[in-house]
Structure formats: structure tokens, C-alpha cells
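Re: weekly structure request thread

Next one in the queue (134 aa):
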Amino acid sequence: MSDATTLLFANDAFYVAFAAGDLAAMDDLWSRRAPVTCLHPGWTPLFGRPAVLKSWRAILESGSLPKVRCENASAHIMGDVGYVICNETMPEGRLVATNLFHREDGRWRLVVHHAGPTSGPAEAPAAPAPAALQ
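Done, posted below.
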């Protein structure tokens, strides 16, 4: 399986944990060694694993989970760092998200989640240019 495919699977696992309200799965996704940051829409930035997981606990245990679907995900890899840009589609509207991962103990783990409003259309990402052309 390619690195891009495993990165997209890790990104999907994030949205599955979110949709299921699964705090244990969410905890498992976030890095244990790298500094982590989360920027929920409308919140101030959260720094450090304890603050980030506390925020997810509050969201996942709120009793009113937003119905979020990840769409149009594109994976980008630079060695042991990768990021996914995607649309988060909800009944209330659409956000754009950046999920930054790093390879830790052989798996992709989240280090940054940043979601915010977007006004552009939901489009599938363009294929990246071959490395020789970049």
C-alpha cells in the first residue's frame, strides 16, 4: 500500500472516530511525541496533547455531535510528514480542513487539525504535478 493511501486511511480514521464519538480512537490518532495543535472553527488555537484531547472530549461527549463528512481529500507527503486537505461537509454548511500527520512508530499520527469556513465550491483536488516539474 502506498504512503498516500495509508495517509488517507489515517485521515479517514479521524473522521470515523469523530462521527462515532469515539474518544479512545481519537486519542489513539494523535501523536504522543510531537507537539500537537488543534484549531476548531471559531475557537482559539489549542496547543499540547492534553488541551487538544480535552477539547475532543468536550465535543465528543457533548451529546450533539456535528454530522461531518470528509470529501475531496488529497494527500501530500514529504518524507515522514504528510498532510491532507479536504472539505468537511455538514448539514449547516461546509468547512475546509488541513490535517497534518507525521510518521510515528510506523504509523501516521495527527499533529495538527485546522478547520474553518470556505466560500469556494467543493471540488476534487487537481492531481499534483510530477516531482520533476515542481
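The beta strands are 37-39, 46-47, 69-78, 81-90, 93-104, 107-117. The helical segments are 3-20, 23-29, 49-60.
Next request, please.
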